[in-house]
Write a structure and sequence with these properties.
Elements lengths: L22 E7 L3 H14 L3 E7 L2 E13 L4 E4 L2 E4 L1 E2 L2 H14 L9 E7 L6 E4 L12 E7 L2 E7 L5 E6 L3 E6 L2 H4 E5 L9 E7 L9
Parallel strand pairs: 3-6
Antiparallel strand pairs: 1-12, 2-3, 3-7, 4-5, 7-14, 8-13, 9-12, 9-14, 10-11, 10-13
Length: 214
């Protein structure tokens, strides 16, 4: 598998890490190590984590990974055959969102109205190949992904050609997927028995239309 390490040198946020049919930008660490440590402790202790659910081949399963969903309103997010209702932002999450929006503004200015958080307690937990292509996100969507905690391998795979790219996401690092990435590429978080520490991933998103819960 062709999975070059894209961190041989300091990242250039303007560089596209994909060869075609999409755009992925690497902003490097947007939080200093001590800041990132504090954010990770807050998220592990204060977020009301719950195991995710998915419907696969008609069967409802509960994942080892845990999630939390926040947004501007109590709107529903439907993926993998299940529905999640957004919680109201905390002050800490709004501060993180503001930092992320400021970091990406020179290249892809975006205001996010929601965030899906994922907790992987160790390397035995990952995410299978998928695209964030739900209708609510719309075409050419922008997704900012912030990593906190253990370094994990993040991979991308082109839907037609099968070409792959991979990178190691480190503590405090921010990447952004935009353009046609979700249409043409899938991504995954690879498992590793060598990782024994937790990782929290915050994926900031923008819904085209909100559907408040009743």
């Amino acid at each position: 598998m062709n999975t070059p390490d894209l961190f041989a040198s300091a990242p250039d946020p303007a560089a596209n890490l994909l060869p075609f049919d999409g755009i992925v930008n690497d902003y490097g660490a947007v939080f200093a190590p001590d800041e990132a440590d504090g954010l990770l402790r807050y998220l592990l202790d204060e977020i009301p984590w719950r195991h995710d659910e998915a419907v696969i081949y008609g069967r409802r399963i509960v994942t080892a990974r845990q999630v939390a969903w926040y947004g501007d309103a109590a709107f529903d997010y439907r993926y993998s055959g299940a529905t999640r209702t957004a919680l109201p932002w905390t002050d800490a999450l709004l501060a993180i969102k503001a930092r992320v929006e400021a970091a990406i503004a020179p290249i892809s200015p975006t205001r996010f109205n929601s965030c899906l958080l994922n907790l992987y307690t160790d390397g035995t937990q990952g995410m299978a190949w998928h695209s964030d292509d739900e209708a609510e996100l719309g075409p050419q969507t922008v997704i900012a992904s912030l990593s906190l905690g253990a370094t994990r391998k993040f991979a991308l795979r082109h839907r037609r050609s099968g070409e792959k790219r991979a990178l190691l996401l480190q503590h405090g690092q921010l990447i952004v997927m935009r353009g046609a990435t979700q249409t043409h590429w899938q991504h995954a978080l690879m498992k590793s028995a060598r990782v024994h520490a937790p990782r929290v991933n915050l994926t900031f998103r923008t819904f085209r239309s909100l559907s408040p819960s009743s």
